[in-house]
């Protein structure tokens, strides 16, 4: 995630161009190897075992390695070795910048220092970004109340970012909340959960973002906003909310998930709660979230 945040900062400051940023992100992402692929290449897990772990991830908020370890498919030593391989094969934005000769080492050092200062980042927070600590990143960018409801908001957003990584194979870029006064524009995919609390969550997407998200999640070629596209995005939201509710149930918070709804370019939606932009490699979406 550091890649997305620092890359966007360099672009916003005019240090690199939009074309250079796209080139860097594609170059860096192309070297990222999934843990399951490494396990398969090393003959440590079979394809059936890997698919089983992937399916289990659709029902629980756990990483691939954690599940494989609990199922006995990998030992701790094997997992540690695979993680080292994965890290060594992940190029990193800074290395990509140097390889592409977009900046010199001294220019990169100065840009990194400015990034820290402009965003009021301590070295610990910078390391959280560099290590993809999503829970810390959410707390860095969002300012929910320090109470039980605020904690639920933090956990919901953090889980959504994790599920974008898991199920869409993308690296989300979180931005600070937008004002609620401006009317959201786009397709609005919504779902509620009611019980001890009331949760209302919506994804707002343009035509192109809806098509791309649907294609990634369904792993099918979708080229237009049709029923399959809308159903796929609605199912992604339902999957995410289902995992969130399982997490909450483990802590004694029981919620009943309602069916998803889809509205097109509605001007009747009144935003409540918070409105959070999330940038993906294929476009931008917004999360409208209210937990009361």
Task: Describe what you observe in this structure.
- The chain has 292 residues and is an alpha+beta fold.
- The protein has 2 domains: 2-130, no CATH class; 173-291, CheC-like (Chemotaxis protein chec), CATH 3.40.1550.10.
- Helix content is 53%, strand content 14%.
- It has 13 helices and 7 strands.
- Strands 1, 2, 3, 4, 5, 6 and 7 form a 7-stranded antiparallel sheet that branches.
- A hairpin with a 2-residue loop joins β6 (274-280) and β7 (283-291).
- α10 (134-141) crosses α11 (148-168).
- The protein is globular, with a radius of gyration of 20 Å.
- The protein starts with a helix and ends with a strand.
- The model has no long low-confidence stretch (mean pLDDT 87).
Largest sheet: 7 strands, antiparallel
Low-confidence stretches: none
Principal-axes geometry comes out as globular
Helicity range: 40-55%
Q: What's the alpha carbon Rg, rounded to whole Å?
A: 20 Å
Terminal CA distance reads 30 Å
- Give the strand tally: 7
Q: Structural class, judged by helices and strands?
A: alpha+beta
Percent of residues in β-strands: 5-15%
| Integer tally of domains | 2
| Overall pLDDT level | 87
How do the helices and strands follow one another from N- to C-terminus?
Answer: HHHHHHHHHHHEEEHHEEEE
Number of helices: 13
């Amino acid at each position: 995630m550091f890649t997305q945040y620092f890359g966007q900062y360099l672009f916003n400051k005019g240090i690199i161009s939009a074309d250079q940023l796209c080139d860097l992100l594609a170059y860096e992402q192309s070297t990222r190897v999934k843990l399951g692929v490494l396990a398969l290449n090393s003959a440590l897990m079979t394809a059936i075992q890997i698919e089983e772990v992937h399916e289990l991830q659709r029902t629980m908020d756990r990483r691939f390695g954690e599940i494989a370890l609990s199922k006995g498919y990998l030992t701790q030593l094997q997992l540690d070795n695979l993680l080292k391989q994965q890290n060594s094969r992940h190029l990193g934005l800074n290395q990509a910048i140097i390889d592409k000769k977009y900046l010199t080492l001294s220019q990169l050092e100065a840009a990194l220092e400015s990034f820290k200062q402009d965003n009021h980042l301590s070295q610990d927070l910078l390391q959280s970004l560099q290590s993809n600590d999503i829970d810390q990143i959410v707390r860095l960018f969002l300012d929910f109340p320090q109470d039980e409801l605020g904690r639920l908001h933090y956990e919901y957003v953090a889980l959504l970012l994790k599920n974008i990584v898991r199920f869409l194979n993308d690296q989300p870029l979180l931005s600070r909340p937008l004002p609620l006064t401006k009317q959201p524009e786009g397709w609005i995919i919504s779902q509620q959960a009611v019980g001890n609390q009331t949760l209302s969550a919506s994804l707002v997407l343009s035509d192109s973002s809806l098509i791309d998200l649907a294609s990634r999640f369904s792993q099918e070629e979708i080229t237009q906003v049709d029923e399959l596209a809308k159903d796929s995005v609605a199912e992604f939201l339902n999957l995410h909310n289902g995992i969130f509710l399982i997490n909450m149930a483990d802590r004694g918070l029981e919620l009943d998930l309602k069916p998803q709804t889809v509205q097109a370019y509605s001007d009747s939606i009144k935003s409540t709660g918070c409105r959070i932009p999330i940038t993906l490699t294929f476009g931008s979406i917004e999360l409208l979230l209210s937990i009361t």
